Amino acid sequence: MKSLVVYSSVTGNTKKVAETIYNQIPLEKDIYKSDEKFDYNKYDLIVIGYWVDKGTCDNNTIKLIEKIHNKNILLFGTLGAEDVGDYYDSIKQKVEEIIDKDNKILGHFLCQGKINDKLVERYKEMLKENPNNIKIREQIKIYERASTHPDSRDMNNAKEFIKKYITTL
Predict the structure, then answer these.
(1) Which DSSP letter does residue 27 get?
(2) Tell me, what's the pLDDT at 101?
(3) pLDDT at 62
(4) Beta bridge partners of 50
(5) Does residue 9 sit in helix, strand or coil?
(6) If we measure between CA atoms, which residue out of 60, 148, 168 comes closest to residue 77?
(7) Among candidates 100, 4, 7, 98, which has minimal Cα distance to 44?
(8) Rounded to whole angstroms, how far apart are CA atoms 35 and 9?
(9) What is the pLDDT of residues 64-99, one digit of tens each?
């Protein structure tokens, strides 16, 4: 069985998780960024990594996912939000809905990651204009806590995720 890990990353979060997952796969494997040239038809298992953009996966990943047919798929992603509430589940659902039904989704993993510094700065500018806005203050705190992610716990969870599903193939 031949495996492909393919990912999209802006801040390096998803790349970090992709490399961790890649290193855990005990099969013949390749790793590519989503904007590189590769033939997904050569692989039995495709592990797809994305970063969250507006509640779903980024556009590069959407374009990639739409091309894939008749494959076993594992998904993983990173986002700035904390792992609380139903938000993580809603993201997973939206991403999985993009995948054609002729594929088999084996599993899906999400973890927190630092966000783009430009977005943090934008929120700080918004706070200057609205210093009493509690939502903006809370969002900045969340982004600051996210700055240490993905951390060693996230990486261990990614390792366990891939081990669990690789052994079922």
Answers:
(1) S
(2) 97
(3) 97
(4) 77
(5) coil
(6) 60
(7) 4
(8) 10
(9) 999 999 999 999 999 988 876 789 999 999 999 999
∠ Cα 157 160 165 (to 5°): 130
Q: Write down all domains in the chain, each with its CATH number in brackets.
A: 2-114+149-166 (3.40.50.360), 115-148 (no CATH)
Give 36-72 as a 3 state SS string: CCCCHHHCCEEEEEEEEECCEECHHHHHHHHHCCCCE
Query: Which residues touch 114 (CB under 8 Å, ≥6 apart)?
Result: 11, 13, 80, 143, 146, 147, 148, 149
Give the number of residues written for the chain: 169
pLDDT at 83: 74
- pLDDT value at residue 142: 87
Residues in the chain, pLDDT under 70: 84, 169
Measured N-to-C along each axis, helices 87-98 and 59-67 cross at an angle, to the nearest 10 degrees, of 40
Strands 45-53 and 56-57: antiparallel
Show the tokens assigned to 143: 């982004």
